[in-house]
Amino acid sequence: MAPAVLIIVVLRLWPLLLGVNFSFTGDGERNGAMVGLDNYRDLLDDPLFRTALRNVGLLVLLLPIAVAIPGLLATFIYLRVPGHRLFRSVYFFPAVLSPVIVGAIFNLLLAFDGPLNELLGGVGIGPVDWLGDPKVAIFAVVGVQIWATFGMALVVFLAGFATLDPALLDASRVDGASLAQTIWHVIIPGLNRTIQFVFVTTMIGMLTSMFGLLYIMTGGGPEGSTYLPEFYIWVQQGQMNRPALASAASTALFLIMLIVGLLQIGLLRRAGRED
Amino acid sequence: MKQRARWSAVLIVGLALAGCGSASDSGDKPSGGATGKLVVWDWKSGDATAKSYIEKAKADFAKKHSGVTVEFVAQPFEQYYTLLGAAIQAGKGPDVMLFNGGGQIRDRVDALLPLDQYVGEDKQRLAGWDAFTKDSKIYAAPVTLQGHPIYYNRSLYRKAGLDPEQPATTWDTFVADCQAITKATKAKCFAQGNKEGIGIQFFLSGLGSGILTTQEYDDWIAGKRNWNSPNVKRVFSLWKEVNDKGLNSDGANSTAMFNDAFAVFQSSKASHVIGLMSDIGHWKDFAEFLEADNVGVMKAPVVTPGTTPSLPYDGGIGYAVAKWTKDPTVAADLVRSLTSTDALKAFYADAGAIASDTTIDVSSAGPAVAAIVSDLKEGKPALHVALSSKTIELMGRLSQQLLSGSITVDKAVEQLAKSDQAG
């Protein structure tokens, strides 16, 4: 027991505490000096960090869509739509691509003079500056993130379906339930735990693994509209040479993730009790 | 029970210690440059075009210090300052490191050794020292010169019935020429890329000498920037006006300067681009696509009557010495080898860089290089290089807002003034 605790303390808790402690020190001329909560005040005063936090809120709002898409597609595959085997592999395929490749592909597709705008032009809709319009860019990046990652959630859903009692589906069919009724009354209650799991893991994925896509697709722009905390940390640490401020932002992100994690534990516990 | 108590004590003492003092290590610790070895970090030595440059520099250094091994570690440029920042923070970085001139090195001089006493002999031969100087101390020796010439496509000028030997010298005639070219060839006036907010830096420095008076220009470089001056505001209103009038290539805020905007110019979809003198997006790159004779270089058109346009340039990249290196004299000698004439000659020939060594003969490189080199004598430091990294970053974001119309010029300038005065 004791060595295990030591490993956890030295390799996990200790660096974490150093990071938190570092966030209370200064940058530049005040390097190393304790500055109390100054970095946290700077963070709250920084419109970029506030945008990053607002975008976290936006991600939470978009989360149901990110979960519903793989859920629905997994339902169709489970109900054996024609070609379901092909769909399974096609949907999963982007999950094996690096975000850099995905970002580069969509940079080409979404370019101002790119094929999507040409297509839109063909049907008489004016070009959209997908990655250059601050009102549109964040939705474009989140859309690509969902496209690139829903394959993994789909696999989790399919695994969940394996635990679903087929007798319930047969019963609903015999009772003449429509597809929508089957999904609402049989599949959703039956996959309750899987849905909760996908909700939490998708949220964590969006908060911690969108860096590559952001870096390639928008670089945080335009006008800082696509900043997320992770990207903000990188910019402050590497580009602005403000590692202590970056540590404060990391601590803030850690707290956000902690809340999400606690939510996860709460959800799973409650689901366990229902069983 | 006793053992549990002991472990608890270790845990508590450990956690308590973590909360004491600073996690930042600001002390000077020795590092990689121990006995007989110097470690160099850069983002150039991995390029094929820099191979002979590095070889020549190594050979020159070996003549002076045959017992010292030199290890070049080429880092990816987009990660370079992140990695370097972490190394500096730990006080365990390389002995010699490459920097861009301006804010990137000035923000980090605390970790660097002043080189004044080592580079005295090179001061006349090399140009571009100012970009690596802070508080009158030199922190790196310039390898290349970096600046922002306005390149134009002579072939498009000819197609529009204009004389490529006589590019416009005033803003109004410049716009008229652009309109004639667009009418004849459909090419836009400027290839513009502002996805990373870099376009405005090129615009400010490329056109600034035709907008600010000589006094305003010199004051700006000296740090006495009057953001309320109508001419300073004119830079930003012109930036917006150019886009509003459709002179820029489409989708500037979603077009990367590197290399999408340059590709627009190279493919003759725009007649002008404010490019670079060295690295990427410069005369040699353009000459490969447009042919050397079709690449022209012009000075900024006069926007404010009475101004004297000049070539904006500074030291581009330069090697610096970490203050924790074990033997500063040896490390400084390596920097001197990296800026020796033979090495820089190879860098110019293979990579197309305008080297800091002004004694190198460039007469066979075509009209663009001839124009750039002949303008060096009257050239002045680039306006954006004088700004801090923080103000540059803010300017990038504000420039995007100006293009999308979500901020006024007055508000943008007000924010820039505040950031600039905060330092």
TrEMBL record, chain A:
Subcellular localization, as worded in the UniProt entry: Cell membrane
Residues covered by the ABC transmembrane type-1 domain: 48-264
CDD domains: TM_PBP2
Keywords: Cell membrane, Membrane, Transmembrane, Transmembrane helix, Transport
GO biological process: transmembrane transport
Keyword Ribosomal protein assigned: no
GO cellular component: plasma membrane
Family: Belongs to the binding-protein-dependent transport system permease family.
Protein's name according to its UniProt entry: Sugar ABC transporter permease
Native source species: Phytohabitans rumicis
UniProtKB/TrEMBL annotation, chain B:
Record carries keyword Transport: yes
Gene3D superfamilies cross-referenced by the UniProt entry: Periplasmic binding protein-like II
GO biological process: maltodextrin transmembrane transport; maltose transport
Pfam families: SBP_bac_1
Superkingdom of origin: Bacteria
InterPro entries (UniProt xref): SBP
Keywords from the named record: Signal, Transport
SUPFAM superfamilies: Periplasmic binding protein-like II
Molecular function as annotated in GO: maltose binding
Cellular component terms per the entry's GO annotation: ATP-binding cassette (ABC) transporter complex, substrate-binding subunit-containing
Range of residues in the leader sequence: 1-23
Listed PANTHER family: MALTOSE-BINDING PERIPLASMIC PROTEIN, MALTOSE_MALTODEXTRIN-BINDING PERIPLASMIC PROTEIN
Stated family: Belongs to the bacterial solute-binding protein 1 family.
Protein name: Sugar ABC transporter substrate-binding protein
Annotated source species: Phytohabitans rumicis
